[in-house]
Description:
The complex is a heterodimer. In chain A, the strands form three sheets. Chain A has a two-stranded antiparallel ribbon with strand order 1-2. Chain A is mainly alpha-helical. Chain A is flat, with a radius of gyration of 46 Å. Chain A is built from nine helices and six strands. Chain A has a domain at about 1-90. By secondary structure, chain B is of the alpha+beta class. Chain B has a domain at about 30-235: 3-Layer(aba) Sandwich (Rossmann fold), CATH 3.40.50.10480. In chain B, the strands form two sheets. In chain B, strands 1, 2, 3, 4, 5, 6, 8, 9, 10 and 11 form a ten-stranded mixed sheet that branches. The mean pLDDT of chain B is about 90. Classes of the chains: A mainly alpha, B alpha+beta. Chains A and B meet through helix 1, strand 2, helix 3, strand 3 and strand 4 of A and strand 4, strand 6, helix 5, strand 7 and strand 8 of B. Strand 2 of chain A pairs parallel with strand 6 (about 140-145) of chain B, so a sheet runs across the interface. Chain B: It comes from Bicyclus anynana. Chain B: This is Ribosome production factor 2 homolog. Chain B: Belongs to the RPF2 family. Chain B: InterPro entries: Brix, Rpf2.
Amino acid sequence: MDIVNEILEREQKKAEKYxxxxxxxxxxxxIDVGTLLATDTNDLDIKSLSSDSERDTxxxxxxxxxAQLLLxxxxxxxxxxxxxxxxxxxxAPKTVLPRSKPVPKPxxxxxxxxxxxxxxxxxxxxxxxxxxxxxxxxxxxxGFKRSAAEKQKDWLIEVPQHIDPLTDMYEKKSSExxxxxxxxxxxxxxxxxxxxxxxxxxxxxxVTSDKASATQLSTAxxxxxxxxxxxxxxxxxxxxxxxARGKGVHELIPGKExxxxxxxxxxxxxxxxxxxxxxxxxxxxPKIDMEKAVxxxxxxxxxxxxxxxxxxxxxxGPRKAKGKTNFSAKKPKAGKGQRNPGKKTPGRKRR
Amino acid sequence: xxxxxxxxxxxxxxxxxxxxSREPKAIEGPKQxxxxxxxxxSERARNVLKDIYNLKKPDAAYxxxxxxxxxxxxxxxxxxxxxxxxxxxFGVSSHSKxxxxxxxxxxxxxxxxxxxxxxxxDSFKAMSEFHNIKVLTxxxxxxxxxxxxxxxxxxxxxxxxxxxxxxxxxxxxxIRLQGLEHVLSFTATDDGTIYLRSYRILLKKSGQRTPRxxxxxxxxxxxxxxxxTMLASDDLCIEACKVPKELKPIAKKNRSTDAFGTKLxxxxxxKQDINRLQTRKMKGLRKSAEEKKQMLLKKKLAKKxxxxxxxxx
Lengths: 351, 313
């Protein structure tokens, strides 16, 4: 027994040497270890807070107790060793803090990307350099030294048999290229408009370097004729002029959109619709116009009262002056020149 | 034909990088903060913001120019500067007869004001007036909120969130135990006074694994008084607190393990669109011109009979 007592005594002495790490609180603290945040909802000691001399010591002791409780919670977590430092893995924070920018939206796909996705087409990687048999050297796919190689290759372009022998093939080639660039740009803009859900007008005629076809021309003529304030209603007609129809016309001319006829209903549906209609008419309740009813009632009352007055004899004696003059001691305040003592005006603006 | 109006893209590689870095991200870094001066700020208000700036330092900028504006009347300047500096927290110091030693703390969402809270500085003791060792800059502090008012008062509740946003620095996964050396204590009373105190933690032996905590005040020590507030609506708050889909934990559905520890899963297949299915193309299966004609005729006949049937009924 002596040994046990001795050990207990020694432990007690050891404990007395150090200050305690436990803190007693009436209400438990709400601790969010993830953000290192502790909220103490216990009532404060108002007496020591209000006195200037005791305030700081009180606040410090309060903070010490709460910090001790928070650190106790942190020390309970499992530790790790990273680069000779003992670290603690914190749980996810409980406090919800707002973001500084909205949640990112996924980038809208272009029309081609959508199509490729539906069809399962994936991009094939092309080599940046390709061996050119004609030049006997490596030519890049695009960029630096590509156009020089192209120029070297195209020192002469043959004019095909079926076209005008005097055409400048170099000019033709460059115009074709610029057209491709323009088309690509148009598609890019269309994709942007689609992503932003902007409605863009249909382009009436496709851009062609060569002659337009008869249908294209007639479409253009019809659209041009309709481009007046009265939508071409008073424009003269040519003899034997044909009205163009189809794609490109009704989208461009307002009011030309063809409305689809509703499909012929099946006998059952028609019957049901008619029955519903009859039901609706038969089940109708008379609507009461409250305003009208109230005004009618008021009117009746007024006429009744006026008749009563007529029947009564006129009263004798002088009539007393009615209405009070308002004697208020207050000085009128600024209020746009209209004096209305009863109304509270905002007055002079103070900052 | 040339291209008429190109949508402007960044011309330089660096410009593109900057624009990309400004785009919204799923995981955001620590919020940046700007401190600015409104009309004639008093020395006390200025010093308060300077000390808060010192506490926040690597993620903050102090703009020393005076600006002629009133945050609660027109906050466009704040929004503009926040956009310019990529900041979403701000502090403004000002002084007037009506509102002496005024400090406005707030935050923005998508470069628009979210919350704005005005505090009056009743008394202030700067960091430099405490002659002792300070804590390292950029350290994550422990935040303590004392008093029941933090829970009961709606304005204080939001102010608690704002202050946490200001000082919590960044979300971290691990923390060094020896790096816990700073405590910020906010004590609120019922009459709207907020006592800000800042302490350094001294870890003492306790005879156990958990050390005994002692505190040493390092400043600043500020007594705030709550003034006007401009808080965000609930809708905007919900919008601002949205968590991106990719960060949400994915619920594991339709998975189970049987007695032998084999993983089992139930798979649900979507309905296949058979009409658009491309089967094998063969010459023999192709329809000839005559067959097509016949099919058209058949369709017309079917339509006619349907019409007649509806007319008779």
